[in-house]
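Researcher: We plan to redesign the surface later, but first we want a full-length starting point. Tokens attached.
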């Protein structure tokens, strides 16, 4: 049976969809079978981030309303044969869609996969509960900013009531130069503040934004950080990407001052 992991955050725009997509790509790169499920019915964009929007024939709504079977709505990734996307479909109001309906669909497709990654909408209302009720494990994404950390804290409290098998924290958009000059919180401080183990630290990087529809460049820091995150998820290792590696030592301080002056 597949591991079902919801990617959530509380605060919007911190990188849930980006993490769902790139973690899925990294896991699929390890040879396991992965499906990415978009449960953000309002602002669904996982298909666009994965570059498969033109391949969609059916979506979750079509399955719910009986126009197709779950398998027919799966869209294969453009590059990886063992990676699929289940798009959500856009509705004005998703209140009529229940968590139970989505859960049944996920249970139906999960024997075909090793991982089901569920992209959750922002907030902690109906959409959040619908997504979380379909998963056994949760990844909370937060950026190192106070509003995001406060919302992550609230989400962690609500998540606890679901008693998931595992909750891991991913710190996204971390900047080594700011951490070195004490202008951004260190991942270890965030871990202590939220009392949740960090399973990934992902750097702020243009490559992430530019990679929509494509895989991250293999030489990028983000590619390596996502590979470590995927290993931590899959093999339960505890390797965290060090975003400060470029900014320590003599050359590091030069890089820091160049960045400051840009
Ligand atoms: N590490 C990163 N470095 C640079 N840009 C990033 C990074 N992670 C995400 N982004 C950018 O941040 C924006 C928001 O990301 P994303 O859509 O994944 O957030 P989200 O949490 O899914 O948002 P929503 O709550 O609206 O669903 C996107 O433009 C994305 O490219
Ligand atoms: Mg999103």
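Model: Full-length starting sequence:
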């Amino acid at each position: 049976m597949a591991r079902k992991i919801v990617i959530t955050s509380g605060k919007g725009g911190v990188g849930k969809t980006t993490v769902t997509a790139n973690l899925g790509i990294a896991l699929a790169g390890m040879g396991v079978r992965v499906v990415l499920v978009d449960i953000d019915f309002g602002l669904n964009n996982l298909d666009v981030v994965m570059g498969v929007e033109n391949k969609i024939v059916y979506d979750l709504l079509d399955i719910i309303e009986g126009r197709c079977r779950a398998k027919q709505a799966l869209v294969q990734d453009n590059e990886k044969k063992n990676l699929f996307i289940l798009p959500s479909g856009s509705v004005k109001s998703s209140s009529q869609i229940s968590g139970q309906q989505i859960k049944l669909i996920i249970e139906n497709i999960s024997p075909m996969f090793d991982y089901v990654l569920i992209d959750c909408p922002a907030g902690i209302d109906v959409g959040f509960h619908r997504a979380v009720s379909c998963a056994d494990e949760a990844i909370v994404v937060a950026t190192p900013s106070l509003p995001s950390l406060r919302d992550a804290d609230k989400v962690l409290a609500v998540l606890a009531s679901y008693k998931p098998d595992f909750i891991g924290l991913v710190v996204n958009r971390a900047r080594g130069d700011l951490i070195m000059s004490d202008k951004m919180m260190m991942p270890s401080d965030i871990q202590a503040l939220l009392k949740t183990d960090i399973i990934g630290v992902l750097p702020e990087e243009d490559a992430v934004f530019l990679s929509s529809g494509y895989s991250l460049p293999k030489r990028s820091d983000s590619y390596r950080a996502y590979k470590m995150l995927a290993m931590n998820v899959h093999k339960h290792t505890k390797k965290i990407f060090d975003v400060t590696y470029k900014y320590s030592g003599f050359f590091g301080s030069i890089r820091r001052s160049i960045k400051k002056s840009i």
